[in-house]
UniProtKB/TrEMBL annotation:
<feature type="binding site">
    <location>
        <begin position="192"/>
        <end position="196"/>
    </location>
    <ligand>
        <name>GTP</name>
    </ligand>
</feature>
<keyword id="KW-0342">GTP-binding</keyword>
<dbReference type="GO" id="GO:0006614">
    <property type="term" value="P:SRP-dependent cotranslational protein targeting to membrane"/>
</dbReference>
<keyword id="KW-0547">Nucleotide-binding</keyword>
<feature type="binding site">
    <location>
        <begin position="107"/>
        <end position="114"/>
    </location>
    <ligand>
        <name>GTP</name>
    </ligand>
</feature>
<dbReference type="GO" id="GO:0003924">
    <property type="term" value="F:GTPase activity"/>
</dbReference>
<dbReference type="GO" id="GO:0048500">
    <property type="term" value="C:signal recognition particle"/>
</dbReference>
<dbReference type="InterPro" id="IPR042101">
    <property type="entry name" value="SRP54_N_sf"/>
</dbReference>
<dbReference type="InterPro" id="IPR000897">
    <property type="entry name" value="SRP54_GTPase_dom"/>
</dbReference>
<comment type="similarity">
    <text>Belongs to the GTP-binding SRP family. SRP54 subfamily.</text>
</comment>
<dbReference type="Pfam" id="PF02978">
    <property type="entry name" value="SRP_SPB"/>
</dbReference>
<dbReference type="InterPro" id="IPR004780">
    <property type="entry name" value="SRP"/>
</dbReference>
<dbReference type="Pfam" id="PF00448">
    <property type="entry name" value="SRP54"/>
</dbReference>
<dbReference type="InterPro" id="IPR022941">
    <property type="entry name" value="SRP54"/>
</dbReference>
<protein>
    <recommendedName>
        <fullName>Signal recognition particle protein</fullName>
        <ecNumber>3.6.5.4</ecNumber>
    </recommendedName>
</protein>
<dbReference type="GO" id="GO:0008312">
    <property type="term" value="F:7S RNA binding"/>
</dbReference>
<dbReference type="InterPro" id="IPR003593">
    <property type="entry name" value="AAA+_ATPase"/>
</dbReference>
Amino acid sequence: MFATLSDRLTATFKSLRGKGRLTEADVDATVREIRRALLDADVALPVVREFTSRIRERATGAEVQQNLNPAQQVVKIVNEELVAILGGETRRLRFSKNPPTVIMLAGLQGAGKTTLAGKLGRHLKQNGNRPLLVACDLQRPNAVNQLQITGERAGVDVFAPEPGNGVGDPVSVARQGLEHARHHHYDVVVVDTAGRTGVDAEMMQQAIDIRAAVTPDEVLFVLDAMVGQDAVATAEAFRDGVGFDGVVLTKLDGDARGGAALSVRQVTGQPVMFASTGEKLDDFELFHPDRMASRILDMGDVLSLIEQAEKAFDADQAQAMAAKFAADEDFTLDDFLQQLNAVRNMGSLKKMLGMLPGMAQMRQQLDAFDEREFDRIEAMVRSMTPLERRQPRIMNGSRRARVAAGCGQSTSAVNDMLERFGQAQKMMRSLRNGMAGGTGIPGMP
Ligand code: GDP
């Protein structure tokens, strides 16, 4: 997400390091670099202009703080301005006082609406709501079916028109869906609508009609972040057509240059509320302008990381581990495996590591990281006997060869794994002795 932009900005700030004060020439050069980086990331020109003029004004102004060096000051200013163009405060869903709350999705075909409906449904369900997805995309062949499959995966009910019951009128399906939700006490209704590959009058009219029929509490405009400069024109067309209250950016996982994210709020006046970062149901997050700015500036998004960790780690497991720690018991391969699995449950490791500060410089290593490594380690540990897992020092040559054969790996892979485990064990010991270091993830240097 925003990898190139992030790299460019970080490089710009780096060139300011070590400077005692900023000359006008420094500010000029920095602003020019920021401007180029933003334009290359497809940020809309008016947004770039306003952004850079704010940076220039503040960097040359009297905003000098005693405790920050010039490079830090510029980062601080850019960070604050980024948060501002991303919308400032996190905008959360507004729920109706008279349920069901109705959320309508609008956007071009392929933007990711149907996928999003599933993600949103699951998110709502995890937060204690009882959502219903309503399939009003009757244009795209298979869209209804796709929503049914997505809903099933997400564990969320779907209201779909009866097959064969005429071609179907999306407006009446939307109405029936809402009626069904009232009847069966669903408290949130997510209406998936049709999109075309380009904006056209008929599609927009249909969206307007559905809006009139179900009077949604929130209309969310779903925007594919990969479309670059076109994003702005599309967003404007939807703003002037059906209108919307918030934006969902999808496909932020791709090599999206991110311009859409940075422009859309400023251009349409509506906030980005959610980000979709992959095809899986879990690849979905609330859009926090401050955290996103931190990520772009490679200051790390430690808060998101902690939230994900909280979801993944089971409290009982953590307590058992803590008790073990306190009792001075040694860290075994079973513990190692358990921790590895907990880390794996947090989602893509690459994505997680990307949220840590300073990761921009490590991007290449990060891209080369193969997540299947986890599976290999797990297979090896599972091929060991319980005694071997507790006392890995008994692993001589023939035991190593047996484990390798047992899980179809090479002996050197087993050696590597044991070596890594040895490091993790050492780290656990030093942690116990109060000398924390490294990434804090056992087995990861
Ligand atoms: P719709 O026409 O707006 O309903 O779009 P779909 O939900 O069918 O999505 C179109 C394609 O984009 C599908 O292949 C999805 O799997 C994919 N997709 C949706 N959201 C994301 C995302 O956040 N990241 C990636 N990489 N793919 C996505």
